[in-house]
Amino acid sequence: MGGTEQEKMVIVVREYEEEKDREGAELVDRMCEVGPSGAIALFTDLLGDPVCRIRHSPAFLMLVAETTSPEREIVGLIRGCVKSVTCGDKGPRRGGGAVPIYTKAAYILGLRVSPSHRRLGIGLKLVQRMEEWFISKGAEYSYMATDNDNKASLRLFIDRLHYSKFRTPSILVHPVFAGHRLPLPRTATLVRLSPSDAESLYRRRFSTIEFFPRDIDAILHNPLSLGTFLALPSGAVFSGIESFLADPPTSWALLSVWDSKSLFRLEVRGASLLLRGLAWTSRAVDRALPWLKIPSFPNLFRPFGGYFLYGLGGEGPAAKELLRALCLHAHNMARAGGCGVVATEVAACEPLIDGIPHWRRLSCAEDLWCIKRLADDYSDGAVGDWSRSPPGSSMFVDPREV
Questions:
Q1: Considering the entire predicted model, what is its pTM?
Q2: How do residues 99-133 score in pLDDT, each as one tens digit?
Q3: Angle 171-172-176 from CA coordinates, rounded to 5°
Q4: d(Cα 353, Cα 217) in Å, to the nearest integer?
Q5: How far apart are CA 29 and CA 400, in angstroms?
Q6: CB–CB of 361/341 below 8 Å?
Q7: Distance CA 21, CA 64 (A)
């Protein structure tokens, strides 16, 4: 497209209309997800629902950028949601623990501009319109996640929109071995909690960590949440959540499992024939000789799904070992569910990170989160400027926005 024709083009940003825009939005997603020829890239199939990654949030919006001439064409899109999350605490409460301070935080994800229409200010216009909606919903902060090496994204958000680098959590991914289940250690006893018991535990012990969602009950009761599991030392008896909260064992660990496979599928493209062959060989040996317990590389070169682990935490000297047992249990759940991977995202300085099994080649040591303050007020108390605060040791990553 020539420069003169681009200059004459008028771009309209409006709210996404499912019946009219679905095909065009999917096309933009496909064009932007696949990397250049010869490079490994990750393609996302949203299974016919471009809003699936935000649909379960309490307030969400998707905008599209559309040309008005010579014919209407969707050339960009953006997704956003608003929720109340923890940004600090008010100090100790009676009976132990601290009182959380909540703020309304807005999250931007899935910003896409078709390659043929980049450098026209479309991304800037989409974000600005989304921020207007955030402010209308009472959001006090807006944040987004990007790769450290995504220079175009950093130029847009940091240089032009005045976001600042905020947190660098780690994305940890573990393949699901098709040929065998992973054995669980005998040193751990696993207990499945009801959603109401899980809510009590999360609110009592986790509600003051960063980004803890005020509506944790909605997440735990969502059909996509496949269960919350508590690990105790072998021989320990779980006699109810109130007894546990009143007198917990010396060590324990907790995590919940979210079914991302039902929302979207992923596919690795651009891998060499050698890498594909080695991966196929590992799977063949694993299926033929599962008793050898040979780690196999799953077939990530065709669409695959995954489970996301959220709300990870625990206490005590054996917490890492107990968390590892829970992750292995989640792997076996994912295997039964036909998944290719299990994944999680935790703070860079998460004290239990060594207890989370993962493959470095599939993981990302530093996912970059950037933040911008939209308003001076706080909905639930004051902590100063959260965007300038030092990181905590842990954080809560909402599975509804993965």
A1: 0.91
A2: 899 999 999 999 999 988 988 999 999 999 999 99
A3: 135
A4: 25
A5: 19
A6: no
A7: 8
